[in-house]
Every structure is written in structure tokens, then in C-alpha cells.
Specification:
The complex is a heterodimer. Chain A is an alpha/beta fold. Chain A has a domain of 69 residues. In chain A, a hairpin with a 2-residue loop joins strand 4 and strand 5. The radius of gyration of chain A is 18 Å and the shape is globular. The two termini of chain A are 31 Å apart. The relative contact order of chain A is 0.17. By secondary structure, chain B is mainly alpha-helical. Chain B has a domain of 184 residues: Orthogonal Bundle (ABC transporter involved in vitamin B12 uptake, BtuC), CATH 1.10.3470.10. In chain B, 76% of the residues lie in helices and 0% in strands. Chain B contains 15 helices and no strands. In chain B, helix 4 runs parallel beside helix 9, helix 4 runs antiparallel to helix 12 and helix 9 runs antiparallel to helix 12. The longest helix of chain B has 39 residues. Classes of the chains: A alpha/beta, B mainly alpha. The interface between A and B is medium-sized, with 26 and 23 residues.
Chain lengths: 258, 342
């Protein structure tokens, strides 16, 4: 269970958001400058909120009342950046193994989930192991970044517009893989996007944001089951398409699809 | 592709090492009393117990080579390597192609510290410690000022360095003002112009230990430097203790450049230019960049010292030559300074 109450003031702009989230993919959705990335950075610890509290399960990450601020490296959160942020001087394999502790790295299972080899296989990057980031396409780079973020055994995965720099065809595949990975890892994913399509396909829950504030928090899964639809990618797409116009009414914002 | 080839390009290291050894041997022959290569090798083999050399001649050669030329050449090697490694690591850790030990105020701080040490005490250890201490304070001031204000981080760090450098330059003026004008002042002024004429065996021996350790530690930490040069946020989310690593690197990079001040005074531009040249040659991977910078820096300073010793009848201070060579060179490469930053 991820609990967050965040208040962060910037000159002329305040982000003030409160939410709780159990499992699945939470999408932070809103136009540019609505404070989505700030929320993500507060969760990771890269930005320190002025006040509030953040906790994951029984671990408190931040609490202004108790004076707790766990440093980024001890929060066990994975972070996938928009522009991949791979180490340019390391091969794909070394990049992915960077955060993996211990010897025999390739075969160590992420406690109960998958080994590095299996993750590489699943993300279709096994054959790229010995290449350098400069030799990869955008989609491939983002797969490597994703694999690396998962291999540090995170208990929470944060993704900042992970698909926005990836070409269109690749984006569709990556969405499927993201959903699949979340189902296998069973840790909360928090994903920032300003693409409606992405939000529709990926989200289990959506936090709509505008000008630093939450405008609504919608449980997409509940909506889906209300309509008696089975889960699955095709249904997800259709459900989201059906659900979406309902939200569009209370959330008119200058969001543009990519 | 470029990065891959640069990782495999480790042939640079033995190649440059050979070049450096050759330049050291050739420099041993150069000077007011010219020696031939045969004489050098004859002397070396006699010292090792193989050759046979006339006793009186041997003593003369020993005086010239071991007591005068070798310490000086070794000092050039140490200073060149230290300034280049220090500059390269500062550039990588601040992701800023314009910083160097002198631009961050380290050389000014260390000069002030060393001058203060010279006035207060004649103990080598005191001079070295005070030089390092104030060099370190100078970096902290530059970085602190850069952190204090929002805005272009690249620019703020340069401005912080200018402020810190100016502060210690004025403090140095105070030291000069109160120094004994007949003995201490000329010594301080001469030494600050940057030169190796005072580098003797003892000085080189004393400073080679901290410089050796510092360069070694930084080279060992070079994989971490690669990670810092990618940006703090990315490194932090992968579990890297960014603050601790950066502090360690600043500590050693400052230590080695402060030690060069103790031996040779202020020698500017080496720490800025050599890392750029090396980066153009081998790319941004610090695991390769740092050793290559060390070797090229050492080679460069040995060469510059030869020029400063031989070009005119009177020796010109080394620091003046490095500036005269460095400034136009930097003006030329400024356009390409961003290249090779990956």
C-alpha cells in the first residue's frame, strides 16, 4: 500500500496531492506543468516535500511530522527516466547488472521473481547484451532501462513518461510488456504520462492532475468490472475507450496525444 | 560504435607510457652541460653494476643526473599527471567542461595556504597540510556558492570559482604584504610564478607520496566517476551514495592539485587543457580517460619544462610557459570543448 500526502511549494506554483494506492499501475495524468513529475520525484526522494508523509507498506519514506526523510538510495524504488539515462560506457549487460548485488549475477533470481537472463529474454534484449547504448534504438534503450530498474529489486517502480521518446510501433509492444511485468512483479508501478492513449491502456487507477492538484482519482479496474468485462488487453483498450468519454467531461485540459 | 572502440582502445596506455619514458630519458640529456644518450645509458648501467665508468666522471654525472636533473623531471611528471587527473575528475564530477583546479580556486587557495605555511613554519608537513587545507576550503566555497543560487549550474560553478579564487588571491596579497621583503617575499613571488627550479630530491620525495596515493585512488574510483558524470538523480535511484563518492573524489582531486602548488607554485591551464585533449583522443570513459590524461599531462609538462629551461639563457618560470601555450590552445578548442562528452 502506497500512501502519499505531498505538499511542495515552488515560486508561484504549489503541488498539493494526497492519495493511496494498493496494487497495479497508477497513472498520474495531466497536462505539462501539472506537477506529475514533482509527485514522482517526491516518491523517489529526489525532491523533498515541504510537508506531508509518504509510506510504502509499513516503511515510512518521508514524514515532516516525525522528521523522517529516507535517502533515495535506501528507499528501494526503481526509476525509469524519460531519456533512458543508461551508462554510455557500459554494455547492455553491465547496465542491467549495475544494481544487482552479489556474484553469479546473471543467474540470481530477484528473490522470488525472475533472473536477469529471464528478464532480458522477456524484454527481447538478450541478443543486445554486448552492445553499447549508442548502438541501440530508442525502444531498445528503454527496455534496457526498464530491466535495470527492475533488477535493483525495487518495492515500487516509478516511470516518468517512459514511452514518450519511443517510436510509435515500439510503444504498443512496450505497453503490453509493462502490464505484463507489473503482473509478474506485483509491486506498485507509478507512471507519469500526458498521453491519453497510454493512460487508457495502462492504468489500473488514474490520478488526474491539474495545476498541482488532484482533480479526481479513478479506479479503472472497478469501472471495467462494473461493466462486466473480462480483463485482457483487447478488452482493456475497449473498456478504456468506453470509460474515457465519461472523464473527458470533468477533465477538459489542453492535453495532446503524442 | 565510438564508445565501443574507445573501450578497446587501451593500447593508448602502453603507447603513451613509452612516450613518457622516452621523453624523460631525452630530457636527462638536455641542459647547460649536454650529455649524450650513450653517456646516460653508460651511467645507468654503471649504477646498476654492469658498466665501467671512470670514477671522477661518474661522480660528475651523478651530480648532474641524480641530484639536479632527475628530481626536476620527476617533479614535472608528478605535477603534470596530478593536475591533469585532478582537472579531468573535476570536469567529470561536475559535468562541466570548463572547470579545472585553477578555475575552482584550488590553486589560489593552496597558494595562500602554502605561503602562509612558509611564513609561519619551515616544516614541510605544515606547508603541505596548510596548502591542502586551504585548497579544500576554496573548492567548498566555489561549490557552496554554486549551490546557493538557482540558475545555470554550469555558469554558477564558474562564478563560484572566480569568487573563491579572488578571495584567496587577496588573502595571499595580505601574506605577501606582511612577509619579510628581503627574504620571504622574493621567495614567495618566484615560487608562485610556477617553476621547478627549486624542486630537489626531498621535495619530490615528500610530495610524491600524497600525489601517488591521490592519483591511484581517483583512478580506482573512475567507474564511480563515470556514474557521477551521468547526473545525480540517475545515480541516486540506482542506489549510489552520490554525496559520499563526490566528497571522496573532491578530497583527493584537491589533495593532488594542492601538492603540485607545494612543489612548483601555480601552474595554470594544464588541468583544463590536458583533459580536453585526452577526451578528444579516447572519449569520455573515465576508466581510460584518467590514466591517459595522467600520461599526456606528465609528458606535456616534461616537454614544457625542457622549453622553459633551454629556450633562453635565463630560465623562464614554467607557469608562464603553460599559460602562454595554454591560452591560445584553449581559445582554439573552445568550440570543440563540448565534443566527446557523450
Amino acid at each position: 500500500m502506497l500512501n502519499a500526502a505531498i505538499c511542495k511549494k515552488f515560486p508561484g506554483f504549489t503541488v498539493e496531492v494526497e492519495f493511496a494506492f494498493e496494487q497495479g499501475i497508477l497513472v498520474l495524468f495531466g497536462p505539462s506543468g501539472s506537477g506529475k513529475t514533482t509527485v514522482l520525484n517526491c516518491l523517489s526522494g529526489l525532491v523533498r516535500p515541504d510537508s506531508g508523509a509518504i509510506s510504502l507498506g509499513d516503511r515510512i519514506f518521508f514524514s515532516s511530522v516525525q522528521g523522517i526523510d529516507v535517502p533515495v538510495r535506501k528507499r528501494r524504488t526503481g526509476y525509469v527516466f524519460q531519456h533512458y539515462a543508461l551508462f554510455p560506457h557500459m554494455t547492455v549487460k553491465d547496465n542491467v547488472l549495475y544494481g544487482v548485488p552479489g556474484r553469479h549475477k546473471m543467474k540470481v533470481k530477484d528473490r522470488y521473481r525472475m533472473s536477469v537472463l529471464e528478464v532480458l529474454e522477456m524484454l527481447k534484449i538478450t541478443r543486445l547484451q554486448d552492445r553499447y547504448p549508442s548502438e541501440l534504438s530508442g525502444g531498445e534503450k528503454q527496455r534496457v532501462a526498464l530491466a535495470r530498474a527492475l533488477m535493483v529489486e525495487p518495492e515500487l517502480l516509478l516511470l516518468d513518461e517512459p514511452l514518450s521518446a519511443v517510436d510509435h510501433a515500439m510503444r504498443k509492444d512496450l505497453r503490453q510488456e509493462l502490464r505484463q511485468l507489473q503482473r509478474i512483479w506485483r509491486i506498485p508501478f507509478v507512471l507519469v504520462t500526458h498521453s491519453r492513449e497510454e493512460m487508457k491502456v495502462l492504468a489500473d487507477e488514474v490520478l488526474f492532475m491539474k495545476a498541482g492538484r488532484k482533480t479526481s482519482h479513478v479506479d479503472m479496474a472497478a469501472k471495467r468490472s462494473e461493466r462486466g468485462l473480462l480483463s485482457g488487453e483487447a478488452e482493456d483498450e475497449r473498456t478504456a475507450a468506453k470509460i474515457y468519454p465519461f472523464h473527458a467531461k470533468n477533465h477538459e485540459s489542453p492535453v495532446h496525444d503524442l | 560504435m565510438q564508445l565501443k572502440s574507445c573501450v578497446k582502445n587501451t593500447a593508448w596506455i602502453p603507447g603513451l607510457f613509452f612516450l613518457l619514458v622516452a621523453s624523460v630519458v631525452i630530457s636527462l640529456t638536455l641542459g647547460k652541460y649536454p650529455l649524450s644518450l650513450e653517456e646516460i645509458f653508460g651511467f645507468l648501467s654503471t649504477s646498476c653494476g654492469f658498466g665501467s665508468m671512470d670514477g671522477q666522471k661518474y661522480e660528475l654525472f651523478k651530480n648532474i643526473i641524480v641530484d639536479i636533473r632527475l628530481p626536476r623531471i620527476l617533479a614535472a611528471v608528478l605535477i603534470g599527471a596530478a593536475l591533469s587527473v585532478s582537472g579531468a575528475s573535476f570536469q567529470s564530477m561536475f559535468i562541466n567542461p570548463l572547470v579545472s583546479p585553477s578555475l575552482l580556486g584550488v590553486l589560489s587557495g593552496a597558494s595562500f595556504g602554502a605561503a602562509l605555511g612558509m611564513i609561519v613554519s619551515h616544516n614541510w608537513f605544515a606547508v603541505q597540510s596548510s596548502s591542502f587545507l586551504f585548497g579544500f576550503v576554496a573548492v567548498l566555497i566555489s561549490v557552496g556558492i554554486a549551490r546557493l543560487y538557482r540558475g545555470d549550474r554550469l555558469l554558477m560553478l564558474i562564478l563560484g570559482g572566480i569568487i573563491s579564487g579572488a578571495l584567496f588571491t587577496s588573502l595571499l596579497s595580505i601574506v605577501k604584504y606582511v612577509a619579510d621583503p628581503y627574504n620571504q617575499l622574493p621567495a614567495i613571488v618566484n615560487w608562485l610564478m610556477g617553476g621547478l627550479s627549486m624542486a630537489d630530491g626531498n621535495t619530490v620525495l615528500f610530495t610524491s607520496i600524497p600525489i601517488g596515493i591521490g592519483v591511484l585512488v581517483i583512478v580506482i574510483l573512475s567507474p564511480y566517476l563515470n556514474i557521477l558524470s551521468m547526473g545525480d538523480d540517475e545515480a541516486k535511484t540506482l542506489g549510489v551514495n552520490v554525496a559520499a563518492i563526490r566528497m571522496t573524489l573532491i578530497f583527493f582531486a584537491t589533495l593532488i592539485s594542492a601538492m603540485t602548488v607545494v612543489v612548483g607554485g601555480m601552474i595554470g591551464w594544464v588541468g583544463l587543457i590536458i583533459p580536453h585533449v585526452s577526451r578528444m583522443l579516447v572519449g569520455p570513459d573515465n576508466r581510460l580517460l584518467l590514466p591517459v590524461s595522467a600520461l599526456i599531462g606528465a609528458f606535456y609538462l616534461v616537454g614544457v619544462d625542457d622549453v622553459s629551461r633551454l629556450l633562453f639563457n635565463v630560465e623562464i618560470p614554467l607557469g608562464i610557459v603553460t599559460s602562454l601555450v595554454g591560452i591560445p590552445f584553449f581559445a582554439l578548442v573552445l568550440k570543440n570543448a563540448r565534443k566527446g562528452w557523450g
